[in-house]
Structures are given as C-alpha cells and as structure tokens.
Amino acid sequence: MNKHMKKITIALAVLAVLVSMASCDSQLDVKNPNNQTTYDFGYTESDLQEAIIACYNRIRLEGTFARVGYTLDAVRGDEVWNASQQWYLPYDNLNSNGQIDIGDQWPWRDNFHVVNRCNLVLSRIEQMNVVSDNLKRIQGQALFLRALAYYNLATYYQEVPLFTDYGQYSSIESMYAENVSQDEVFDQIEADLLQAIDLLPPKTAGGEWAKGRANQGAAAGYLARAYMFRHKYSEALVYLDNIINGSYGSYALTADYGDNFREGSQYENNVESIFEVQFLDYGQGGSDEEWTPVNISTNATQGHAVESNYGSQELGSWGDLAASPWLYNLFKAERCTDGTLDPRLYWTIVTYEPEYSSYTGTTNAAYPNGGDPRSNVVYQQEITRTPRCNNTQGGMSIAKFTNARNNIYASITTGLHCGVNLRLMRYSDVLLRAAECINEISGPTAQAIEYINIVRRRAGLADLDLADFGSSKDKLFEQIANVERPKEFGCENGRGIDLIRWGFFYDAGRFAQLCQHSCYMLDTGEGTPVSTQELTVETASDYSYKYYTDGFEYFPIFQGIRDANKNIHGNSANNHSSNAEAWKQKYGNVHPVVSLQ
Q1: Which of 118, 1, 92 is nearest to 546 (CA)?
Q2: Any idea what DSSP says for residue 203?
Q3: Secondary structure (3-state) at 349
Q4: Which of 28, 39, 69, 358 makes a 20 to 30 Å CA pair with 433?
C-alpha cells in the first residue's frame, strides 16, 4: 500500500470512529421516559403534575389510610374495641411492646413515603426561577399532603424526625436524623398549611378542586385541627369561621347523613366533604392487591381494606373491630322529634332494629329521602338479628365506609376492594369544632349552641337550649365531647386524637369514664345473641383501657427503626413515661366529668 492510500485509509478510520462516537453520544442523550430517576425527573411543570399525583397515591397505602393507618386511631378511641382479640389487640389495650409491625412501624413507614415525595416536589419548585399559577397549586398540594402526613405521625408517635428538604436524603448523616419534639412538628404543620391556604384555589374553582384535590378549605380545616390540638382556640376559630362564611367555597351538611358513607360520584366529594381519600368504586380497579409499600402496579385494585376490619365476619370480613355498647346505647338514649331512631345509628353500627322496616316511604327530618327500602338488608341478606362482628367473640360490626348499607355486592371480599371514599374531614366537624372553640374562649353562647343544633337538626333531634348550660363551660364541653361528637363521628378516624388533646388520659375522673365507655361483652358461642346491654367495668367481660400504661396513648416507635437509626430516641410509650404533668403545665386542668341531667 502506497503512502497516499495509507493516508486515505487512516482518514477513513478516524472518520468512522468520529461517526461512531457521534452516534454513541446521540444514543446517550435519549432518555427513556419509563426509566427516569430522581436526578433527571421533576424539572418541568408536566413532570411535577405527575409527581403530585404520586403524592396523593401514597395516602392510599396500608399505613396511611387504606387500612391500619385509618383504623388504628379508631380502635385507640373509646367507641371501638378489638372483637377478634388479636391483630389490633395491643392498640386497643394501648400496651404494644414496640416490636409489632402494624402499628409501631407501618404508619411511620407509609406517612414518610408521603413526606419524601412531597419534599421532592417542593425542592424542585424552589429551584425554579419562574413559578406559574399551576406550579403554585402543585406546591400548595404538596404542602398540604406533607402537613397531613406529619399530623398523622405526630398524633400517632408524638416525636418524629422532621424532613423539609429533599437534599436531606443525600447523605446518611442527614438522612438518619433524630426525632424532634411534638411542638416542633406542629410548628411545621401550621407553617405548611398557612402557606398552602395562600397557594391553593377555593372549592369554587370547580373541576378537580371540587372533586378530591386538596383546596383552601381542606388546608384551613386541617390548620384548625392542628391549632386545636395545641389549644390555640382563638386561632382555630378564625379559620373555622372562614369555612363557615364561605371564604374558601360553599360547604353545607348533606340532607341525608348517609350520603357521607355511600359509594359513587353522586355521593362522594359532596357539599359536606372538606377532604377525602379517593378510591375507585368497587370492581372498577384491577386485580392486584398491593400490600407492600411499592404499590406501583397499573393493575392495582385501588380500593381500601377498612371494610375488611369493620365488617361482619359472618359476611366475609376479618371481624377485627366492633362498635362499643356505650356508643350503641348513646344512640338509643335520645329519639328524633318524631319518635324515630337517630339515623346515624343505622349508618354507624350494623344492628337489627325491627322498626327500621316501618320507615320505608316516610319522609322526615331524620330520613329526608323517604327512609331506606333496604334498611333490613345487609349485603343482600335479610336479617332478623344483629350479625356478629366476629364469629367466636361477637360484637356489633361497623357500617361506616363499608357496603353494609350500600348494598352493592352480596358478601365482603377481604382485601383492598372497598370503593367508598374515606371522608377524613366533613363540614359537621367544622361546626362542632367552632362550637367547642367558642365555648373554650367565652363559655356557652347562642352561636355555639346554634352550630351544634345545625348538626342535630340534620339528624332530626330536638334543639339544645342555651339555658340548660348556663355559664358552665364544663357542661357544654361534656355535651360536645361525649354526646355530639361520638354520635356524629363514631367509629371514624379522629376520636383517639381527641382524647389526647382533651387530656382524658391525664385525669383520674376522665380516665375512669374512658374505661366505662370501652367496656365490651365477649359472647360465649355462635348461638348467643350479640350483646347490646349497657355495661360497667364490673359487669363487662373486659374493657380496653384496663391494660393502659402511662405514655401509651401514643404508639411506641418500632424497635427496628431505633436499631437502624441510633439518633432516634424513644417516645413516651417506649419509655413508659407519663405525659400528664407536661400536658397540664401547657394547658391547665382537664375538664372534669359533669352530669348532663
């Protein structure tokens, strides 16, 4: 080969290499949209629209609201007990040893899933030079969802690590953070929600803002809850009044109480809903039940398993949780103005009440839609007795957020299948909280009584009279805490949090009252009728708080978490330490038990 040809050959070889390199570079620049990482995702508005949906998805995990994250607070309360006598028992008795996954770990794990995703969204937005109106709304939703997660964490575990910057996950040192005081967590919750109110649109913006997205009303409602947990009643009342006055959109009570627990677009995200967790209607999702925190299947069922805990084992559920006889008898103690039963009993507890069948076709304040022609039907089975919650232990099963009164399918399919949206906050809560705040600030007033009466009228009950309460804050508080709230919200998430914020674990009289409320009767066999009798600690089979130890109003932090992160110190449950003195130093005395007679 002559020199000339050799030069041509070398030139061609170099050219081939350059072309090859250019080709490789071109391939390296191609990004697979299905295989993105946190390093290259989240820098566009369209990315962040997808990311905020992923944040909502995290509140539908087992440890958030698809099962135990919702029901653990219900069983911590005094109107729900553990009928299975297993599974939830340490959380009913409030004596977990800190080594049990379902309560000591799952809500921690899954709520931090929400926090982590929200932090990615918030950190990306902070890095952007221009923030559009759409990005502001994304930011507002991320702030609300992070605050919601921290509200759950702080009210379950008392002291938790505080992550507010996605950069904290970049090193072991910052990721393995210590847990901070509950007050520091609530400071962050309040700051997030205040900012969210400014960024989010009102419900009147319509579309998704009225159909499940977090909006101004949701942020204001949860801000009021956060304030009230720390007894900031004046601050809370400002935002409750704003909701009532329509500053964040139009809210009202549904005419039919049951519409808050029905499935379907005509009932869910209704005028009463402040915020609810969205689940696909029964049978509309896929077939994959994802119990793990991965939850990424495109064929997921997209339902919840609260029904599997609340429903009757006779009809297919696990039969874990039952309503307390105290709650049942509280409903039976007061009739509607026309003599009918309080309709909230029907929608709260699955009991056989022969008179239900006589309400069909009647129209009154308690049953505005003419009664329910299916009122003696549970899961398409006619009943002439109260079905047993648990086949061996008995108990009254819970109707709320189940198919018991919806009558869509014949029997329960356990698992993540129920499609009834979980209403986390309703307008009735706003009204009763406003009444409570007014009472704490000024004592009984006509306005406080009127807010309570609005809720009572929907149920068909007689109005309360201001004169019956005089100037006694304690008496009106008793009415709100142990009559109005349990009947309106019985067996929903939130009662356990109320008991803590009211200090009921820190006063001998109040604790004795909790013990009385939590009494239950174990049945002796399947032929035994389910007991609905009024009980005392002397006549009951047992009562939930018999096994309570100081500090266990909060759930212990899972020992495995503490082993992995040595910076995590134990909370009051881990340390078996009382919160009574610290609570009283902050908030004063607990309202004493008073008679309403």
Answers
A1: 92
A2: G
A3: strand
A4: 69
Type of residue numbered 176: Y
Q: What is the mean pLDDT of residues 537-561?
A: 97
Reported as type and span, the H/E element at residue 103 is helix 101-104
3-state SS string for 281-306: CCCCCCCECCCCCCCCCCCECCCECH
**Which residues pair with residue 388 across a beta bridge?**
396
Listing from the earlier edge strand, what are the strands of the sheet with 388-390? 80-82, 321-323, 394-396, 388-390
Distance, in Å, from the CA atom of 59 to the CA atom of 279, rounded to the nearest integer, reads 11
Question: pLDDT of 428-446, one tens digit each?
Answer: 999 999 999 999 999 999 9
Q: How many angstroms separate the CA atoms of 304 and 4, rounded? A: 78
Q: What share of the chain is helix, strand, coil (3-state, %, to 5)?
A: 50, 5, 45
CB count within 10 Å of CB 210 equals: 20
Measure the CA–CA gap between 321 and 153, rounded to whole angstroms.
22
- pLDDT category, 363, cuts 50, 70, 90? confident
Q: Is 413 helix (H, G, I), strand (E, B) or coil?
A: coil
Half-sphere exposure of 424 toward its Cβ, with a 13 Å CA cutoff? Answer: 27
19 pLDDT higher than 50: no
Cα distances (angstroms) measured from residue 386 to each of 278, 383, 531: 30, 7, 9
Render pLDDT for 495-521 as a digit per residue (tens, 0 to 9). 999 999 999 999 999 999 999 999 999
The distance in angstroms from the start CA to the end CA of the chain is 116
Length of the chain: 597
**CA geometry: angle at 225 spanning 223 and 230, to 5°?**
100
DSSP character at residue 431: H
Is residue 122 within 8 Å of 143, Cβ to Cβ? yes
What are the residues facing 378 on neighbouring strands? 381
Mean pLDDT in residue range 419-425: 98
Mean confidence (pLDDT) of the chain: 92
**3-state class (DSSP) for residue 4:** helix
Please check the confidence at residue 271 and state whether its pLDDT lies above 90.
yes
Helices 68-76 and 133-157: crossing angle in degrees, nearest 10, is 40
Q: What is the dihedral of CA 397, 401, 407, 409, to 10 degrees?
A: -90
Q: What is the DSSP string of 223-248?
A: HHHHHHHTT-HHHHHHHHHHHHTTBT
